[in-house]
Write a structure and sequence with these properties.
Length: about 190
């Protein structure tokens, strides 16, 4: 099965991001917008795993969560990878919670190696993917709208307490991926 590890977002945060997406859709750019129900903060794409590896990943999540207290994530900023001149991924950034998510990712990267899951080649950047660019159609309008919107969204996207790490199964279907929770692991509340 295809799997990834992420932090789920509360519904009010998904609603805020959905409103942001609606503003950006007005540009007419050729972007596949992530459905609000699928929006999350990816920590690690695991890839194809079997049941034995899944069990090991679940044990690792329990170990990491036992030493990680809940923390606040505040959303702020809007950007694109690899950059705003030729965007491929449209994202929302974090103004708080980056250090904690990076610490979790570092632990995941180290712990997953024993299951044959390789490290990422790129450094981790805490972000929430909200759209994937399909072509350059109306790209100037999109980058202009992103620039104008970025200045006004700083306080509007919200914040939440991250209290769980979730292992998801991702099933790719013709109309987009479907995510299923395999394990939710609560962070240490002591």
């Amino acid at each position: 099965m295809r799997a990834f590890i992420a932090i789920e977002l509360p519904q009010d945060i998904k609603d805020s991001i959905s409103r942001l997406q609606a503003k950006l859709k007005a540009s007419g750019a050729d972007v596949k917008w992530v459905p609000p129900s699928n929006i999350h903060l990816t920590l690690k794409f695991v890839g194809e795993i079997d049941a034995t590896t899944q069990n090991g990943v679940c044990v690792l999540l329990n170990e990491i969560a036992a030493h990680t207290p809940p923390f606040t994530i505040r959303l702020a900023g809007l950007g694109a990878f690899p950059g705003s001149r030729s965007p491929r991924i449209i994202w929302v950034g974090l103004s708080q919670g980056q250090d904690q998510t990076k610490t979790i990712v570092d632990q995941l990267e180290s712990g997953l190696e024993k299951y044959g899951i390789g490290r990422e080649n790129r450094p981790f950047s805490s972000h929430i993917t909200i759209g994937r660019v399909r072509s350059q159609k109306n790209m100037q309008h999109l980058t202009h709208d992103m620039s104008e919107t970025e200045a006004t969204i700083a306080e509007k996207l919200g914040e939440f307490k991250a209290g769980k790490i979730t292992l998801f199964k991702s099933t790719l279907l013709p109309n987009g991926p479907v995510y299923e929770i395999l394990q939710e692991t609560s962070l240490n509340t002591i």
